[in-house]
Amino acid sequence: MSQIRVELQEWMGSDKAIAEAAWTSSSTLQGKEKKTDADVERVVKMLIEQKHASPIESVVMRFWIKMPIAIDRQHMTHRIGSHNGMSGRYRTMPAEFLSMPEEVRKTSTKAFKSIFGPSQEVYNIIYEYQHHCTTANIYYNKISTMLKEAKSTEAISNEEYKRLREFYRGVLPQHNMTERTSIFNLRSFANYQKLRNSEHAQPEIRQVAQLMLQAVKDKGVSPIALSALEQNGWNI
Length: 236
Description:
Elements: E1 5-12, H1 15-23, H2 29-33, H3 37-49, E2 60-68, H4 69-75, E3 83-85, H5 102-116, H6 120-152, H7 158-168, E4 177-185, H8 186-196, H9 203-219, H10 223-231
Helix pairs in contact: 1-3, 3-10, 5-6, 6-7
């Protein structure tokens, strides 16, 4: 599943921002200016342990993600911040689809052998996954090329061209790769990790969650809060 990729494009906020949000209800401006790094660590850990969630939302992150359309549908079930994704009206969709994972291939072989026995039919069925995905992408790209030609000769208007291009995108497989940006605050990120970075989650969406977490750790985003949330099972 190396085709799945995640980048943390930018972020806002810090452990100190979380603490200062909490201190708004209990300290004056002058009082907050006297707080130390030890005070920040203490209050951030206390907030997470006692599940005071709103200050955690002071940290906001924007991710770019490349994943299969089917996994994007799972991703989009989360209440996050905002999303932007690829548009078939303005882009020709890339002809890249998720390769069959080896564990899926092995399990499929076991399942179909129970029906057909050790026959070639078992391997034909597995091969057809790639065949159907490839065929759909070839058809879509053929249509896209013809539509571009029709627009260039002014046989159709630009609006008609965009309408047709978006419609014919519908033939593409659910495992075709798509791209999007998503904005999370740290509270929604924790909920995402709890649900999607779980042994019960589908492997592909779990990989998205794991790559997101690694990207956040690599950039050093709110390390105190992140560590406390992880130790707390992402409960907030």
